[in-house]
Design goal:
Layout lengths: L1 H21 L1 H14 L1 H14 L1 H14 L1 H14 L1 H14 L1 H22 L17 E5 L4 H8 L5 H10 L6 E5 H9 L5 H9 L1
Antiparallel strand pairs: 1-2
The chain binds zinc ion (2 copies).
Amino acid sequence: MTRDIVRRRIQWATASRRWRRRHPEQRKAIEQKWQRKHPEKWKKIGLNWRRKNRKHLRCASARWYQGHKRRTRLNNNRWRTKNRKYVRVRERRRYARDRKKILMQCRQMNATLKSIIIAEYGGKCTCPKCPEKNPAFLTVEHVGGRGCKDRKENRSGAISMRLYRRIIALGFPKTFTIFCWNCNAGSYRSGGICPHMRQKKSRR
Ligand SMILES: [Zn+2]
Ligand SMILES: [Zn+2]
């Protein structure tokens, strides 16, 4: 008796599967009807699926991003400005969770941006009398010493990454250059001209 029931159930299941395969449009309509009728349940199913296939989703979205970079960035920015409060909470939580990783990524990003800028401005201290080439000794110089004013105006504060980003976005303007810390501090102390150049003038 029970065996009969089981067999009938299996038969019914295969038949219904066959029907669903043969009538994709009708099946879709039925499913959509159900989804509209039970939005909460449907949402839960989707969430569960996403939780189970997280890896697959990440791969797929990465692939999609490669093909639609500009569009994705635009959409993301729009979403972020719309949900600013939520984003702030989420970022804070993320920072608390993997602070070390984030700080390292920041440092790497900083180094990359700085190396791009250094290469663009000639790869060495641009003071004519200074041979310094080591990137660890090089820094961005505001031509004419308007660094403090510039930082205030553009709210970059002590965050060098913002300054680097801005320089790159502006297309490496002539108002910036690369100096070593020595020439940078020297020119700050003596009113915008590096002491190297002062010495040259006084000797003559
Ligand atoms: Zn120098
Ligand atoms: Zn100098």
